[in-house]
Amino acid sequence: PSGTGLKPFAKAYPKRFFFVVIVEQHALTMAAGMAAGGKKPFVALYSTFAQRAYDQILHDVCLQNLPVVLCLDRAGLVGEDGPTHHGVFDISYLRAMPEMTIMAPKDENELRQMLAAAYQMQGPAAIRYPRGAGLGVDICQDFLPLPTGKAEILQKKGNIALLAAGTMVEKAVEAAGILEAEGIEVTVVNARFMKPLDEELLKELAADMKLIVTMEENVLAGGFGSAVLEFLAQCPSMPKVERIGIEDCFVEQGSRSALLQEQGLSAAKAVALVQAFVGK
């Protein structure tokens, strides 16, 4: 309850809060039963621990297309908790599950709206968000559910696009600023949804862009960038695609900032990829 920030909720709504300790498999099957009975359960747990309930998410929730919402805390690199606690596989293992919707907010206000969107959905949904404080953006007090599968274009310039998921949106915006100072204009997209993808936007990017750089705080294997590549492969024209994410390795312990730099999850990496492409 403390790790997921739910102690205040538990105190305010004791009859609507169930702490099942560290039995994630039971938590998901219980949520599936509640959803089958007409309720809208939200399951808050660390991304890395949701892996323990893979079978329950797949068979008990997705197979029955039940409206269970996974709130995946500590998604991405978590720093000092060590290699067992990095939540860097969830996009990959959830993306293969039919009926599942996967979201990642760029900031705490968008997280609020994603929770509202997930509440309105009739099937399974997962929202992944990082450990630590938010960015300090203004919070809209109204709940404004996001349209499912629609990305947000933050700026549209040039013929190079930075397509970022969740925490990497901030890095993409930073990279765009650095590149613009060098005379290179880029489009910046907040993907919002890892599944379903914004296919209409991707078709436009495939036609208009010469380079797309995907950015995610997840393993590259089967992740967001892989999903983009799979879709673009079906388009009549396909731009060059570079992917920024975690390589095929287990990430060791260290501060979050140091690990992000070590794995190349940075504005500098995006800038370098774009510069190399422009140079060629």
Give the helix/strand layout.
Blueprint: H1 7-12, H2 24-36, E1 42-46, H3 47-50, H4 54-62, E2 69-73, H5 90-95, E3 101-103, H6 108-120, E4 125-128, E5 152-155, E6 160-164, H7 168-181, E7 187-190, E8 193-195, H8 199-208, E9 211-219, H9 224-232, E10 240-246, H10 256-262, H11 267-279
Parallel strand pairs: 1-2, 2-4, 3-4, 6-7, 6-9, 9-10
Antiparallel strand pairs: 3-8, 5-7
Helix pairs in contact: 2-4, 7-11
Can you characterise this structure?
There is one protein chain. By secondary structure, the protein is an alpha/beta fold. Helices cover 37% and strands 18% of the residues. A five-stranded mixed beta sheet has the order 1-2-4-3-8, with helices on both faces. Strands 5-7-6-9-10 form a five-stranded mixed beta sheet, with helices on both faces. Helix 7 (168-181) links the parallel strand 6 (160-164) and strand 7 (187-190). Helix 2 runs parallel beside helix 4 (54-62) and helix 7 crosses helix 11. The longest helix is centred in the middle third of the chain and has 14 residues, at 168-181. The protein is globular and about 60 Å long. The mean pLDDT is 96.
